[in-house]
């Protein structure tokens, strides 16, 4: 098999496709905490924390957590939201709107508003970073010049 080949494994009663990196295809009906931790490269503790915060709601079978496709999709959105700078509270607000029965129109409008606001925040941070880099580069040049001057007067 080549490196791009998929291999099928049995997990419960569902066929699971494992991709070359070990990630699980989304068509699987349920996932263990270990499945999601491996697929999204997060710790078990992170998943339990998200559960405590109400972001995920796995089914329990004894001491085992069983996550469904909805939980997996929510986790994917949580991680994307964190990556672009949203707080867990903001992420939860948007995710909770999925449960409304208005064809997700409210959720989409709120999400669009929050996304546009976050774009503004990130663009401002980008400008601040660019200014800080310019200042630091200028300072590095000045310090390098001072070192050269002092080395010349020393010799």
TrEMBL record:
- Which SMART domains is this protein grouped with? HTH_MERR (SM00422)
Domain HTH merR-type as annotated: residue spans: 30-97
In terms of InterPro entries, this protein maps to: DNA-bd_dom_put_sf, MerR-type_HTH_dom, MerR_fam
Checking PANTHER family in the record gives: HTH-TYPE TRANSCRIPTIONAL REGULATOR YFMP, REDOX-CYCLING DRUG-SENSING TRANSCRIPTIONAL ACTIVATOR SOXR
What GO terms are given for molecular function? Answer: DNA binding; DNA-binding transcription factor activity
Q: What is this protein called?
A: Transcriptional regulator
Q: Where is the composition biased (Basic and acidic residues)?
A: 7-18
Where does the record place the region Disordered?
1-20
Q: Which UniProt keywords apply?
A: Coiled coil, DNA-binding
As recorded in UniProt, coiled-coil segments are 105-132
Transmembrane intervals: none
Indicate yes or no for the key word DNA-binding.
Answer: yes
- For the keyword Coiled coil, the answer is yes
What SUPFAM superfamilies does this protein's entry cite?
Putative DNA-binding domain
Name the PROSITE patterns on file.
Answer: HTH_MERR_2
Species name: Prosthecodimorpha hirschii
């Amino acid at each position: 098999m080549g490196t791009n080949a998929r291999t099928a494994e049995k997990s419960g009663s569902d066929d699971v496709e494992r991709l070359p990196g070990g990630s699980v295809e989304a068509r699987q009906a349920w996932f263990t905490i270990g499945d999601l931790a491996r697929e999204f490269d997060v710790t078990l503790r992170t998943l339990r924390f998200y559960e405590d915060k109400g972001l995920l709601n796995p089914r329990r079978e004894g001491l085992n957590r069983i996550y469904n496709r909805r939980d997996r999709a929510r986790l994917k959105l949580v991680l994307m939201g964190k990556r672009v700078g949203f707080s867990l509270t903001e992420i939860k607000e948007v995710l909770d709107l999925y449960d409304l029965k208005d064809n997700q129109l409210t959720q989409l409008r709120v999400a669009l508003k929050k996304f546009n606001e976050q774009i503004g925040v990130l663009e401002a941070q980008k400008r601040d970073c660019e200014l800080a880099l310019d200042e630091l580069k200028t300072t590095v040049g000045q310090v390098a010049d001072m070192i050269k001057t002092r080395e010349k007067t020393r010799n």
